Amino acid sequence: xxxxxxxxxxxxxxxxxxxxxxxxxxxxxxxxxxxxxxxxxxxxxxxxxxxxxxxxxxxxxxxxxxxxxxxxxxxxxxxxxxxxxxxxxxxxxxxxxxxxxxxxxxxxxxxxxxxxxxxxxxxxxxxxxxxxxxxxxxxxxxxxxxxxxxxxxxxxxxxxxxxxxxxxxxxxxxxxxxxxxxxxxxxxxxxxxxxxxxxxxxxxxxxxxxxxxxxxxxxxxxxxxxxxxxxxxxxxxxxxxxxxxxxxxxxxxxxxxxxxxxxxxxxxxxxxxxxxxxxxxxxxxxxxxxxxxxxxxxxxxxxxxxxxxxxxxxxxxxxxxxxxx
Length: 325
Hints:
Blueprint: H1 2-147, H2 151-230, H3 238-283, H4 297-316
Helix pairs in contact: 1-2, 2-3, 2-4, 3-4
Family: Belongs to the MNS1 family.
InterPro entries: MNS1, TPH_dom
Domain Trichohyalin-plectin-homology: 144-269
């Protein structure tokens, strides 16, 4: 009985020690698991930091490459704009030389016409002076005939005067015919010059229109390229790119239409100014007699309208730099 009690006591004490040992073992195992988890978490954090740093470096590198590409695009755009300015200056210089050449030819032609007109006026005046002298001679002969009173001489003088009158009439008719020939020749020359002037105006208008279309096409292409570059149109899909290009095209056509309307308004204003000038010249023409050359109104209007067309053609070739930036 005592031995049994001792055994039971030993077993009880052993169970307590075993439970304590089990608790310590569990605590050690839990601590080891916690340490391993912490180590694994730290390793994962370090790996995550490495990946984040790598991604950050990649983003920085991509940003630098993108900025470099943008700088290259801007540099190319600036070079293209400078090249366009050079070509525009060349076109302006060619247009200016053509205009100066036309002006010089027109001035020479006007001087030639003026010289011919003065020559014809002088010949006309000389013919009139000859007629006056002949008529004075005729009057003198008539007075002499009256002074010499004799029937035979009177009849002879009468016949002589009739002969002189007939000769004068014949000369006047010949002079009238010659004057008509001169006027017809002057009319044909004037018609030919007006026809040449009309042809030159048509050629100049076609050239001006061609230059304007070329300038508008260049302007349209540059604005389309600028809009596409500003909106990064190459990064869009096909549908968005097509819609954006249509919007850009409408915007460019709107700018071109505004430029055409402004050009027409300027031309109408300039023509109105010319018409007012012609009205003033008509009102005060009597005060200016002797100071102005004899130029027909149609020729003067044509000359002024040519200057208006030339100035309008110069305005077409002018580009506003801010519209391309």
